[in-house]
Amino acid sequence: MADSPDAERTMSPMELYEKLTSQGDQVRALKTAKADKAEIDAAVQLLLQLKLEYKKLTGQDYKAGSPPSDNSAPFNGAVEDGTNDEDTVDPWNVSTSNAKGVDYDKLIVRFGSSKIDQKLVDRIEKVAGQQPHRFLRRGIFFSHRDMHQVLDAYEKQKSFYLYTGRGPSSEAMHVGHLIPFIFTKWLQDVFDVPLVIQLTDDEKYLWKDLTIEECHRFAVENAKDIIACGFDVNKTFIFSDLDYMGASPEFYRNVVKIEKHVTFNQVKGIFGFTDSDCIGKISFPAIQAAPSFSNSFPQIFGSRKDIQCLIPCAIDQDPYFRMTRDVAPRIGYPKPALLHSTFFPALQGAQTKMSASDANSSIFLTDTPKQIKNKVNKHAFSGGKDTVEEHRKYGGNPDVDVSFMYLTFFLEDDEQLEKIRQDYASGALLTGELKKLLIETLQPMIAQHQERRKHITDETVKQFMTPRPLNFKQ
Amino acid sequence: MADSPDAERTMSPMELYEKLTSQGDQVRALKTAKADKAEIDAAVQLLLQLKLEYKKLTGQDYKAGSPPSDNSAPFNGAVEDGTNDEDTVDPWNVSTSNAKGVDYDKLIVRFGSSKIDQKLVDRIEKVAGQQPHRFLRRGIFFSHRDMHQVLDAYEKQKSFYLYTGRGPSSEAMHVGHLIPFIFTKWLQDVFDVPLVIQLTDDEKYLWKDLTIEECHRFAVENAKDIIACGFDVNKTFIFSDLDYMGASPEFYRNVVKIEKHVTFNQVKGIFGFTDSDCIGKISFPAIQAAPSFSNSFPQIFGSRKDIQCLIPCAIDQDPYFRMTRDVAPRIGYPKPALLHSTFFPALQGAQTKMSASDANSSIFLTDTPKQIKNKVNKHAFSGGKDTVEEHRKYGGNPDVDVSFMYLTFFLEDDEQLEKIRQDYASGALLTGELKKLLIETLQPMIAQHQERRKHITDETVKQFMTPRPLNFKQ
């Protein structure tokens, strides 16, 4: 667990960026002060040299005010790229003006991640020996970092572990919240790897008007819905930050290591924090970063710090892990790999992420069959035409139709889904009929979830949430 | 452990200050924009009203750029008060240009604390039923916050607990490091109260070029010297942050509560942090604050959050506890009381605090009798005259003589000390003779410390550092 001093001697892109910025200030100050020409020349010389190093290190030209990120994309996802219709995507805000939702191809360029293309999907199929999950087949998990590297190692019998999480801001979870868990369970089954799930109850306490006790209770309640996704208790550790931080000196040591290697300037650039933010928010990113390193879980991995971590998550969480990947080599740990999902649309349309506080914005895991039926019929934004006649004549638009989008997430059969798309687009399938298909898909799915959740006892939750060894091939 | 929402609804001086500052900005912006007169008038009206509230709350006039602190002194100890010879006193820097040392009376005014006057010393004697410790008799503990309140409660059978600490930046401790521990042991014996001692190994890792493992090892080594001061294992809990943070969910919960109620603006004002500081430094003050609240130690105090804390420490640590006292009522906890000591002078003179990295700047706890003799004779700054003749004629100056200062700390007999002072001032006592008296005081004291430390086993350290119940009257 010692620091790796060798790794620290090389400057990171961010350190070099900061040095460049301060050297630029220096040059300006000398010029303003009408300093000696030789002195100014020397300072300019150093500035140019630093710019060369920066270009060499990041592959990009230095630009004042644009800190570097992983793969040299601007750190902050919300930075403008010259167009005015930019989507906003960060851990607290997701918005777009487009009814089809966020432009994910643009996001890949802006965040500096890589697209999950057909080649990668095929490769996952080959390595896993299974048909890829529908989320992969349909581009719902659409972006990644270092997934090829994970597969390379896996093919050489070098395994990895999975890390995902959730911010427990209320008891209520909706179907959209299940996306990362459904996919993570598939990865766990297919690759037979251990999994850690972080419930950031401390984060919710810091950000929301809630007490510590409420946040912790939400964490435990949410854990039940997560367990109901079918995770293997022998391979899965679920933890509340409020519990685990106070139960694992190794976890805290990694938090402190990360905290030492990230400045306020950096979190300001990445997350948009200001001087009026509380110091808890400012240091929280280190707590979401720490589970990316295997020695944060000695009960599972012993003192091994070299086990690769793979993080399936929605793309809005990427800023945390860009920061983590920047820090990792400087503290002697491997960078976590990532698989990014698109956002699950609100019933009202794909322009926004859903709100757990608006019961009509999504299908909740506690909804009755009747509530599901009413919500879909009343609130699901339709891509159909105004009258049956027009619809039959011109057809509907599945690209903006929320019922069709939901089916993309939850209907397993590819052929059936494609037929629905064609029939809706041609006008053969009416909006009411499409909604009925969705209702018939959701009702049994939610009922089965509720049935599984009903059987999850406090004892089971305690089992999942107790730090302990896990079973997996090492 | 729930938050106290009632307490939170009242604005703290700092919140009101921030509101005032932003209202001032607002008025200026309206004027600059040549806004409607009625609008400007309304904004000015609100500004005046806020100023009245501020005066009522803090007893002071609002002044832009001067945030409020406890007792309305400026938060930052280093703020100028109009004179140019201001001493610098904060947790990382202590300096003065005066050979007699820091001007402590001025510091009391600047920090907004209270002087430990003869009346308070007499009262402690009465309540404790013992002669006050020489550190109290001689003004070495010279300043306090709320000590009368602690004694009021104690007289009504409402007890308190002690909290002190040390930053383990190296294995080497010198006699100056013992001052708070010698005094704390006396308080523990006299009042029969439990004591917690925090070793901030996480802080040292964040501030210094050291590994986590080194800092933790220093903490354990320092614990041995602290235990050698004679603390009662049944009443004393010593902890390393790196260990205890990961062993007590209750401690972490208090850290997060504090972190939620302190902004970057505030720690910037109090500690002088900048945007280039790492996020670990920025959030660390919450970790030094947390032991001030009794429910951080459930193994000792159960879930009780109302037990008063008394903190004996050197005055440079006060900024941490001004912050703590500001936060306490907002999270429903009592403010900790404090007893502040002066600084222990370096052998070279009272202008600076000692450095653990300069072996000749003080007497170390590992020094041999010969080393003690050589150091005092060679390095202890003398207030004597240049020649014996002059000294006999004009006398020496005990106020700047480091040997005499050290005797003030360590020679128990008041009459003997006073006689030494008079004889040195009159010239009857020569510098060499004064140094000999100091050497004869230090040699047995250090030898006894070394003897006690030798018998402290790893088992004993483990006992002190294990979270467990303590024995005390409740």
Q: What do you see in this structure?
A:
Chain A is of the alpha/beta class and 474 residues long. Chain A folds into 3 domains: 14-58, Helix Hairpins, CATH 1.10.287; 99-348, HUPs (Rossmann fold); 369-455, Tyrosyl-Transfer RNA Synthetase (Orthogonal Bundle), CATH 1.10.240. Helices cover 51% and strands 10% of the residues of chain A. Chain A has helices at 5-9, 13-32, 37-58, 104-111, 118-128, 134-137, 147-155, 175-191, 201-207, 212-227, 241-244, 249-260, 264-271, 279-289, 298-301, 318-327, 369-379, 388-394, 402-410, 414-426, 431-454, 458-465; strands at 88-90, 93-95, 114-115, 141-145, 160-166, 195-199, 236-240, 308-314, 337-341, 345-346, 349-353. In chain A, strands 3-4-9-8-5-6-7 form a 7-stranded mixed beta sheet, with helices on both faces. A two-stranded antiparallel sheet of chain A has the order 1-2. Chain A has a two-stranded antiparallel ribbon with strand order 10-11. Residues 1-9 and 70-84 of chain A have low confidence and may be disordered. Chains A, B: One of its GO terms (biological process) is tryptophanyl-tRNA aminoacylation.
